[in-house]
Amino acid sequence: MADLGRRWLLGIAGALALLCASDSARGGTVSNTLEKTVAFPSPVQWKSGAAEISLIGIAWGPADSPEMQAKGREKSPSESPHFFRERPYVLALRFQAKLPGVVSTEQYSSSGLALVKDVEGDLEAPLELTPSGFTPFSGSPGVYDVHFNRSGTAEYWDLFPVSPDQKEFLFQVFANPKFSFRILLRDGDFVIVNTVPRAETSCPKFKKSLVGTIGAGSSIRVQLMREGETLSGTEQYARIGETLWLQGTADSMGNFEIEERYPRDRVTGIFKGKLSQNCQVLTGNFSKPDGSRLQPFELHEVGPTNPPGTGDSPSQQQ
Prior knowledge:
This protein is mainly beta. The protein has helices spanning 2-25, 66-69, and strands spanning 34-37, 45-48, 51-62, 89-98, 106-109, 113-116, 123-124, 127-130, 133-136, 146-149, 153-162, 168-173, 179-186, 189-196, 205-214, 218-227, 230-237, 244-250, 255-261, 267-275, 281-287, 295-301. Helices cover 9% and strands 47% of the residues.
């Protein structure tokens, strides 16, 4: 009798295991969320006031899932959050905003972003997501979705409730000039299309000779060429006879990332910075590939015969 009871319990346990496996196969324990990082340079960029805003990530999934809840915030006692029965999913857009110069106070501003809901052109502003549901951003007028917390750089999520069956999303940006872009959910991936018009690119094509310094005493000469988003060229340190290769990208706002290589297949350093409005000056920070030995750099356009000063390669500095 005892043996029969044990077999019965084992049978029940097996059935429960099969049931759990079936639920998992149907998605009961499998995440239904998608997330993607947008590579630099971002295909969606604009200026809102003095802030430069770039799309850097996209996510989609159930509004009550842990993955999407992590992109929201905790409930405030003064709010009345709620979920949308017809739109139980959320499309989340991650942005980076930059201000020129040093910011020592908290600042709130509006990005100007809205979701176009229908052919009549009805718009929906981004919302905040709490564990209890969606709630509007503060702001009057406008939606204050950009928060600089005593820093010139801010990263944030704008969230929109959507239907799980909706696969195309049209966004309007009320900037100068106003433009729109679409995000498609296709084959388990996000596709960004129809950015109209693209942000104006400063100096989209050039070939320049520049000299400057890295850190306190490393003087360099750079030959740099730009074709659209692509940057390429060579670099020489004043006391080093070898030529190093440069390869990188620049965005429509003049931000750039350039790899220093020697030989061509080995990255020896990273330049990250910004082009001046006339593209005659490049400023930013230089580091080793792992981010260490961070140093400021500044390069100025000169004639091809101007000699650089003297100094050592950053790789020789301790």
